């Protein structure tokens, strides 16, 4: 019998066979609603002045110019690599500080290492922080601290902490409870349990999550370079597209960002496979 078929015995004694399940009906309704919302969104678009016969060829021409004729016009290669270093620095600072702070908060958020009310309080707070998009945090700090790299780092730092607290605390909760109970029975205090049981058991996973967050922060730093005036290659991309309207330079900067992102992914994968094989297997 098909998995979507289920049998129900009625009060009269008869057996009614119905097709489908609750999860399938929920899925069907979800897809239907999403399709309806998509169609409604297209209906609400403002198509005034849109001429598809001109828009489509111009779009393909712009894409050809951007990606098949890339070139730098307003700054040199040396300046380009310097700006890329600024972007990497923003991502690195927010990740390192975020991982350090998140480690201690995650110890309080883990249900097997702290009291229930402390764990729930920390989880609620970081859930709220995580629910607010990174760009909004950056804009909040841009208003409070002014445009610049400080606002970008603080905004990415907030979201990185909330993201890593959830990941780290879940890793801590996977530690064998028997090990913790054995250490408690020997009279070990809370910090000894963390240092001699929790940290050795989860170290590879913590580094794996930190590497992943660094990759995310690099992509965010590109966008924040323009949104918060933090500089970096993202700001140059914003200038090339929004002020100079230089499609060739936009294409070159896009290629540079893509290459750096691929290199970071390869380096991260190689390091995890060589030094942290357990974390690499869990990520796969």
UniProtKB/TrEMBL annotation:
<feature type="transmembrane region" description="Helical">
    <location>
        <begin position="80"/>
        <end position="110"/>
    </location>
</feature>
<dbReference type="InterPro" id="IPR000515">
    <property type="entry name" value="MetI-like"/>
</dbReference>
<keyword id="KW-0812">Transmembrane</keyword>
<dbReference type="InterPro" id="IPR005769">
    <property type="entry name" value="PhnE/PtxC"/>
</dbReference>
<feature type="transmembrane region" description="Helical">
    <location>
        <begin position="26"/>
        <end position="45"/>
    </location>
</feature>
<feature type="domain" description="ABC transmembrane type-1">
    <location>
        <begin position="84"/>
        <end position="268"/>
    </location>
</feature>
<feature type="transmembrane region" description="Helical">
    <location>
        <begin position="190"/>
        <end position="212"/>
    </location>
</feature>
<dbReference type="InterPro" id="IPR035906">
    <property type="entry name" value="MetI-like_sf"/>
</dbReference>
<feature type="transmembrane region" description="Helical">
    <location>
        <begin position="122"/>
        <end position="147"/>
    </location>
</feature>
<keyword id="KW-0813">Transport</keyword>
<comment type="similarity">
    <text>Belongs to the binding-protein-dependent transport system permease family.</text>
</comment>
<keyword id="KW-0472">Membrane</keyword>
<keyword id="KW-1133">Transmembrane helix</keyword>
<feature type="transmembrane region" description="Helical">
    <location>
        <begin position="250"/>
        <end position="267"/>
    </location>
</feature>
<dbReference type="Pfam" id="PF00528">
    <property type="entry name" value="BPD_transp_1"/>
</dbReference>
<feature type="transmembrane region" description="Helical">
    <location>
        <begin position="219"/>
        <end position="244"/>
    </location>
</feature>
<protein>
    <submittedName>
        <fullName>Phosphonate transport system permease protein</fullName>
    </submittedName>
</protein>
<keyword id="KW-1003">Cell membrane</keyword>
